[in-house]
Design brief:
Layout lengths: L1 E5 L6 E5 L7 E3 L3 E6 L5 E9 L9 E14 L9 E7 L18 E7 L6 E3 L5 H5 L6 E8 L7 E6 L5 E6 L1
Antiparallel strand pairs: 1-12, 2-3, 2-5, 4-5, 4-11, 5-10, 6-9, 6-11, 6-12, 7-8, 7-10
C-alpha cells in the first residue's frame, strides 16, 4: 500500500543564511532555492507533507521524494557536492517558515540524496532506515533539502513548491 503526499504550498519555503547560519531570512514564494545565491547566502528548502493517512500501526518500507526543476545558476553539484534530504517528524518549528528552520535539527539527517538535474522532475534515492522511521504517521512530515558542502561561488537551483513536490511512502 502507498500514499503520494503532495507538498503543502502554504508551509513550503526556503531559508537563507551566511555560511555559519548567521543573518537568516525566510522566503516563501513559488520557487524554492537550494545552494548559494547571488547575495552569498546559502539556501535550504523546506517541503511540508501531510502524512497522517499512513495507518498508525503500519510499517513504512520505502519512501522517496520527487521534485520539479524551475531554474538555476552555476553548478551547485560541482566538486562532488551532494544535495541531501533531512526528515523531521512533525515540523522544524512552526509549520510555516521561520528563520530558525535553517539550523533546526532534523529527526534524521541526510537520509536520501538528489542527483544533479537541470530540467524536469527528479526522484531522490530511497530514504535510509532512519529516514523511514522519521516519517510522521499522525500529522505533518517536513523535509529540508540542502547541499552538504557550501559552494564557493554563486551556484543554486530553484525547485517548484506545493503540488510539484511529492513524498511517496510505501507501507504494510
Amino acid at each position: 500500500t502507498f500514499i503520494n503526499a503532495t507538498g503543502i504550498s502554504g508551509d513550503d519555503g526556503y531559508v537563507k543564511a551566511l555560511s555559519g547560519g548567521s543573518s537568516p531570512a525566510t522566503v516563501t514564494y513559488g520557487n524554492l532555492a537550494i545552494g548559494r545565491g547571488t547575495d552569498s547566502k546559502f539556501n535550504r528548502a523546506i517541503l511540508s507533507f501531510d502524512t497522517s493517512a499512513i495507518p498508525d500501526n503500519a510499517t513504512i518500507t520505502k519512501a522517496y521524494v520527487t521534485v520539479t526543476y524551475a531554474s538555476g545558476s552555476g553548478s551547485p553539484w560541482a566538486s562532488s557536492n551532494s544535495l541531501v534530504i533531512d526528515v523531521k517528524n512533525g515540523t522544524f518549528g512552526a509549520a510555516t517558515m521561520e528563520t530558525s528552520d535553517w539550523a533546526a535539527a532534523a529527526t534524521a539527517d541526510a537520509v536520501a540524496s538528489l542527483a544533479s538535474f537541470t530540467s524536469g522532475t527528479k526522484q531522490s534515492s530511497d530514504f535510509s532506515a532512519s529516514g523511514l522511521s522519521a516519517i510522521n504517521k499522525t500529522g505533518k512530515t517536513q523535509l529540508k533539502l540542502r547541499f552538504l558542502n557550501n559552494q564557493t561561488s554563486t551556484a543554486y537551483i530553484f525547485i517548484k513548491e506545493g503540488a510539484s513536490a511529492t513524498l511517496h511512502v510505501e507501507y504494510q
